[in-house]
Design goal:
The complex is a heterodimer. Chain A is mostly beta strands. Chain A is built from no helices and 11 strands. In chain B, strands 2, 4, 5, 9, 10 and 11 form a 6-stranded mixed sheet that branches. Classes of the chains: A mainly beta, B mainly beta. Chains A and B meet through strand 5 and strand 9 of A and strand 5 of B.
């Protein structure tokens, strides 16, 4: 089955720790995205990548980092510099040449809680 | 820059009643518009999208939306609500659809509750 997987589903972090959220897709999509979702605020774009070894900051990139070493994978690291990381994180992908008009496919999300 | 505004963060309707979720957009170019649905603790799923082919767009689960340029609106409707429709719904617009480096801008979401 083709799709996007995110792991873990739930993640707990102590203050001052870095954590990495996994996102893998087998849809052969070029473009991948990371969103943060907070209640009442919709989805906000953190980072996106349209090709391997290249990525761009979204609207709220501070305190986050990403890598895109493989087409299938786009891990997100939440660093200790992110002051309020507790949120629901969603990964999505689509074809890069139709990124603005085609469907974005979403993973099931990771809920991060800072203790 | 493009943006979307969803009117009403929470809508409650009775089972069998009409569902109407409102979305207004702002765009300097002909927009591409989307409605996504999110069930609790899950990712988003596309309901339907407008890409200028037809102003009335039919989607999955009996939903449809009408693009009205004069009103800059793309409201989502369903004639008869079902309990399984309870979810959060997001309207979205494409940022600069003629560019390969574009993004999707999401609204803040509307939570739909269904009363038995």
């Amino acid at each position: 089955d083709g799709g996007i997987t995110q792991s873990p589903k739930y993640l707990f972090r102590k203050e001052g720790q870095n954590v990495t959220l996994s996102c893998e897709q087998n849809l052969n999509h070029d473009a991948m995205y990371w969103y943060r979702q907070d209640p009442g605020q919709g989805l906000r774009l953190i980072y996106y990548s349209q090709i391997v070894n290249d990525f761009q900051k979204g609207d709220i990139a501070e305190g986050y980092s990403v890598s895109r070493e493989k087409k299938e994978s786009f891990p997100l690291t939440v660093t200790s510099a992110q002051k309020n990381p507790t949120a629901f994180y969603l990964c999505a992908s689509t074809f890069a040449d139709r990124a603005s008009t085609d469907t974005q496919y979403f993973g099931p999300g990771t809920r991060l809680t800072v203790l | 820059a493009q943006s979307v505004t969803q009117l009403g963060s929470h809508v409650s309707v009775s089972e069998g009643a009409l569902v109407l979720l409102r979305c207004n957009y702002s765009s300097s170019v002909p927009p591409y518009l989307f409605w996504y649905v999110q069930y609790p603790n899950q990712g988003l799923q596309l309901l339907l999208k407008y890409t200028s082919a037809a102003t009335l767009v039919k989607g999955i689960n009996g939903f449809e939306a009408e693009f009205k340029k004069s009103e800059t609106s793309f409201h989502l409707t369903k004639p008869s609500a079902h309990m399984s429709d309870a979810a959060e719904y997001f309207c979205a617009v494409s940022d600069t659809p003629d560019s390969s480096a574009s993004k999707i801008i999401f609204g803040s979401g509307t939570r739909l509750s269904i009363r038995p």
